[in-house]
Design brief:
By secondary structure, the chain is an alpha+beta fold. The chain has 25 helices and eleven strands. The strands form three sheets. A five-stranded mixed β-sheet has the order 7-8-9-10-11. A four-stranded mixed β-sheet has the order 1-2-4-3.
Length: 543
């Protein structure tokens, strides 16, 4: 692995100038390395962070990927990581025209990393330096504690998807506001949630506030809050009570809860485990936004590599080569999901809608197809709107808010079903639905969505975990090993409440898309490395 040549670096700096002229915003410094495909095989298990701590699973993955590479050699174009400065990796045999395209794609990623608010907890430090420090710490502990370090790593990694990512963002936001939640945020996020007016009142209040901002932007918030205080005399008292609760509230982050409340970990001979757990937790927090913005991030980078490279004079003579490479990256599959393709096309679609003023309510009210086709206010707001999306959205919000039937029809998208042809004993794919609701559910179902766990303690030092059921059951094969690790770190028995299909009719109905499933609450108990399972009385019915 070595730095790119000065010739390639000059090309990269030229691409940065053109990208900034188009509106992208990012820091000046960046590091670019030339790597072989075999280098990438070894870096991939470490999430492309060369200084990440060593762990035996990484070695297993390297061996597996080397074997796969021998059978199926591949040639990835680039990889970029969100560090300070950002680091990107390139193949050593790329021609200049291809590097121009790839550099634009990488710059799109860097701009996204450094401006999307879901990455803001990663902006203040260099993760590679921290990872190197963590690696040295774990190596030192291994020399003293031996294999027990790997046990703690494994037990912690089993629950590192439960880190309090949104709590971290909320705390960071409150710290920047002086450590307290604003009155406006409290009104919309807490006070109105308990109001019996429901969604209708919530929307009306948002419209009322937006109207004030439009009419009197300088005093809108003050007038809005004063009106609330007159209507609800108890508002300020409830606000102060909520701020006190915030200070004493138990964090939903399971790793942090174990670190703060486990009597086993507080013992002098076990306190070294806390350092290992904190390494796993902080690393998990760092990579949370990348998992949650795959469609947005790749779509944004693809949008810009196409937009900027098509205007670049260095494409001259390589149009066919570019088209071939670009199609491999951004073609929309008929079956399945390509985040590059979906994200890029949504950005183009929304830019066009905003340019024509089709995001307004007047357009939504139109029912005449011809009038909708001809509707064009020529607002020119498209580019500003997609920059707003880049800054404020994650994948779930992006898909839920903007994927509509017009987009489906424009790109002839559908949800594919699969059935067995019993005569030929082959699988057949068919068009199951062309409705946007079904396609949106398919996309949302593919997104990262860790379980939500409420934490409490019971008698005899029992740790109680309550899985808030959202229509997705836990993977039963992982429940036992994970609870065994939690029991070890907690130093006592562990109870887990979750939901699973009823044993009476769940299997019989599993093959039907139209049948009501019956879910039952299940209690798993891990005590002295023995797992027990029993149904509890509460039954939850969902579609």
């Amino acid at each position: 692995m070595e730095l790119i040549s000065q010739h390639a670096k000059k090309i990269m700096e030229g691409c940065k100038e053109r990208a900034r002229a188009a509106g992208l915003s990012f820091q000046d410094e960046s590091l670019e390395y030339i790597v072989t495909n075999r280098d990438l095989v070894e870096l991939t298990p470490k999430v492309m962070i060369p200084t990440l701590y060593d762990y035996w699973v990484q070695d297993v993955e390297v061996l597996k990927e080397k074997g796969r590479y021998e059978l199926y050699p591949s040639n990835p174009y680039e990889t970029v990581i969100n560090t300070r400065p950002p680091i990107s990796y390139y193949n050593d045999n790329n021609p200049d025209w291809l590097n121009v395209m790839i550099f634009y794609h990488v710059i799109g990623h860097i701009d996204f990393f450094q401006n999307n608010i879901f990455f803001r907890h990663t902006w203040d430090y260099d993760f590679t330096s921290k990872a190197l420090s963590d690696k040295r710490l774990i190596a030192k502990l291994r020399s003293e504690k031996g294999r027990w370090v790997d046990y703690v790593i494994e037990f912690s990694l089993a629950i590192d998807n439960l880190v309090g990512y949104f709590d971290t963002l909320e705390n960071l936001n409150q710290t920047r506001q002086g450590g307290k939640q604003s009155l406006l945020d409290f009104y919309f996020d807490v006070f109105l949630q308990k109001d019996k007016g429901g969604t209708t009142k919530y929307i009306k209040e948002i419209e009322r506030y937006n109207d004030l901002v439009h009419r009197v932007p300088d005093t809108a918030q003050e007038q809005f809050i004063n009106a609330i205080k007159l209507k609800h005399p108890e508002f300020e008292t409830l606000y102060e009570q909520e701020q006190k609760k915030q200070k004493t509230r138990t964090n939903i982050d399971l790793l942090q809860f174990l670190m703060e409340h486990s009597e086993f970990l507080k013992k002098r001979e076990n306190q070294w485990m806390l350092s290992v757990m904190e390494v796993i937790r902080s690393t998990g927090l760092y990579f949370q936004p990348q998992i949650r913005t795959k469609i947005l991030n790749e779509g944004w980078a693809s949008y810009w590599h196409e937009t900027l490279f098509l205007r670049d004079d260095r494409i001259s003579g390589h149009e066919v080569d570019y088209s071939r490479v670009n199609a491999k990256v951004t073609s929309m599959p008929r079956v399945g999901l390509n985040p590059y393709a979906l994200g890029m096309r949504l950005f183009y679609y929304l830019e066009d809608k905003a340019d024509k003023g089709r995001l307004l309510f007047d357009y939504d009210r139109l029912r005449d197809r011809e009038k909708r086709k001809q509707y064009d206010m020529e607002s020119g707001a498209g580019r500003a709107f997609i920059f707003h999306i880049r800054e404020n959205y994650a994948d779930s919000m992006f898909v839920s808010s903007f994927l509509d039937q017009e987009f489906m029809d424009l790109h002839k998208l559908f949800v594919a079903g699969k059935r067995l042809n019993k005569e030929r004993m082959t699988w057949q794919y068919y068009v199951k639905s062309r409705k946007v609701a079904d396609y949106k559910n398919m996309v949302l179902g593919s997104l990262y969505h860790p379980p939500f766990i409420r934490i409490s303690t019971g008698d005899n030092n029992t740790l109680m975990l309550d899985h808030l059921f959202e229509g997705r059951q836990l993977v039963r094969d992982f429940i036992g090993p994970t609870m065994m690790g939690i029991e070890y770190l907690w130093g006592g028995s562990v109870e887990l409440f979750t939901s699973e299909p009823s044993e009476e009719d769940g299997d019989a109905m599993a093959g039907s898309d139209e049948t009501k499933l019956v879910w039952q609450r299940i209690l798993y108990t891990m005590n002295k490395k023995r797992l027990s399972r029993k149904p509890v009385n509460e039954v939850l019915k969902v579609w």
